[in-house]
Amino acid sequence: MSGESRNPVIDDWLSDQHGAAVLMETAPLTGLAMASYRAEEVPDGILGAWALEIVRARRIVNQSEPTFIRQARDQGWSWQQIADRLGLPSAEAAAMRCDELDAELARTDPSNDARPWQA
């Protein structure tokens, strides 16, 4: 994710264990997935950092998607256009998506459940 700071714990593991510069040039989640196929075992500290990267990335997408949907609707896009662009099965699914994401954002807010956000 461009513009985001990288986790040095993850970068050190990717570099030390795998020495592949290409893994360092990819998004951290991509590098971790690729490296895990090569590793005999992923250390617990790396698993914890990986989980935190997933939680953060999911939150960013979950915040961006309903904003995109609302903006597209404000600009006259149909529910079917939105469904097609987001890979949703139907216009009805797109219409329900904002409410689902709003509920998920509330449920996973760090003030409601801090566990996933702990390093």
Secondary-structure blueprint:
Layout: H1 8-18, H2 21-25, H3 28-38, H4 44-74, H5 79-86, H6 91-108
Helix pairs in contact: 1-3, 4-6, 5-6
Structure write-up:
The chain has 119 residues and is an all-alpha fold. The chain has two domains: 1-42, no CATH class; 44-119, no CATH class. The protein has six helices and no strands. The chain has helices at 8-18, 21-25, 28-38, 44-74, 79-86, 91-108. It starts with 7 loop residues before the first helix and ends in an 11-residue tail after the last helix. The mean pLDDT is 87.
Low-confidence parts: none
Distance between the termini: 19 Å
The class by helix and strand makeup works out as mainly alpha
Give helix % range: over 70%
The sequence of SSEs as H and E is HHHHHH
The total of beta strands comes to: 0
Q: How much of the sequence is in beta strands?
A: under 5%
Largest sheet: none
Q: How many alpha or pi helices? A: 6
Radius of gyration: 18 Å
What count of domains describes the coordinates?
Answer: 2
Q: What average pLDDT do the residues reach?
A: 87
- Tell me which oligomeric state these chains represent: single chain
What's the overall geometry?
elongated
Task: Describe the structure concisely for a colleague.
The chain is 71% helix and 0% strand.
Structure characteristics:
mainly alpha, 119 residues
